[in-house]
Amino acid sequence: MGNANAALGPGGVMYSNGNAVSGPLDSLIDLLIPAKCDEFDKDYVFSFLLSSRLFVRPHELLGRLLSSVPDHEPLDRLVGLLGLWTKTFPYDFRDERIMCHVKHIVARCANTELGDRVSDLLCALLNRLTDLEHHEEELRACQSNTEKTNMKWTSASQLAQLLCRIERKLAKHVGPEEFLQCNGNVLSKQEGSSVCAQNGTPGNQDPKKTCNLETYLDWSARLRLLVSNDILQCDGITERSRIVEMWSGAAQYCLLVGNYNSATAILESLDATPVARLTGTVNNKLSNKSLLRDFSSANCFPP
C-alpha cells in the first residue's frame, strides 16, 4: 500500500510528510545547499552525508558542490554546509583529497567577509582531529604496555564510576559513519575497491580511517573477561561472593546512570558458564542477579 502523504517534487525527488526520502543522486545533492544560508535542513544534511557515501566518496561530493558554484559567486551557502559537515563528520577531513577542495574554498574566501568564518570552522576541525590523534596515541600506548597491574576497587560505586569514565572516553570518539562502514555490504564493497576503481564505479568506498567503534566493542569483550577472571581467581567462597556482589552492585549503578554497555557486559559475565557453575556462590546472589536482569530488560529494551 502506498504512502498517502508521499508526493513527487522537482527533480524527481519523492517527499513524504514534507521530507525528502528518495530521488536521483544529482537532485538530492542539489538539496544540500538551500537558497538561503539560514534555511539548512540539518536532519537532511546529516542523513544525506551519512548515506551518500554508499554511492559517492565524500571528497567527490565536496568537489561536485564546489564546482557547481561559479567563480564569481560567493561561497556563503557552501561554507555553511561545510560548517555542518565538519561538526558531524570531522573524520572525513583526514583525507588529503577532501582537504584539497577545502584549500580551494579557503583561497576563494580569502580577503572576503567569509574569511574569518572559514578560519573559525577550520580551527574547530583541527581541535577535533587533534583530540582524536591524542586518543589514538593513548590507545597505542595502552596496547603496547605489557606490565601487569593489580587493580583493586574499594566499592561498587567507585568501580562503576571508573567504568562510566572509560565508556564516555571511548564512545565520544565513535563517528556515526563508522556504523555504516561496518555494515557487511559496505565492507564487501571495500574489499572489491580495486576492481571498482578500474571501472570507475561511484559506489566504491574508501577504507575506514578510524577504528573507534572496533575499540569500543573490544573494550566490552575485555570487560567481560575481566569480570569472569576477577571472580574465578578468588580462593574461597566468601571472597568470591564479595566480588560477585561488588560487580552486581556496579552493574546496578551503571544501569541507573544509563551506562547500559558496561552493565550488559557484567551481567553476561555473571551468567557465563564458568561463573554460573559456581553454584555455592551464585545461589547466594541469585535474587540480586534476577533483579538486575529485570531492571535491564525494562530499561535497555523498552517495548
Automatic annotation (TrEMBL):
PROSITE patterns: RASGEF_CAT (PS50009), RASGEF_NTER (PS50212). One of its GO terms (cellular component) is plasma membrane. SUPFAM superfamilies: Ras GEF. GO terms for biological process: Ras protein signal transduction. Coiled coil: none annotated. GO terms for molecular function: guanyl-nucleotide exchange factor activity. This is Uncharacterized protein. It comes from Phlebotomus papatasi.
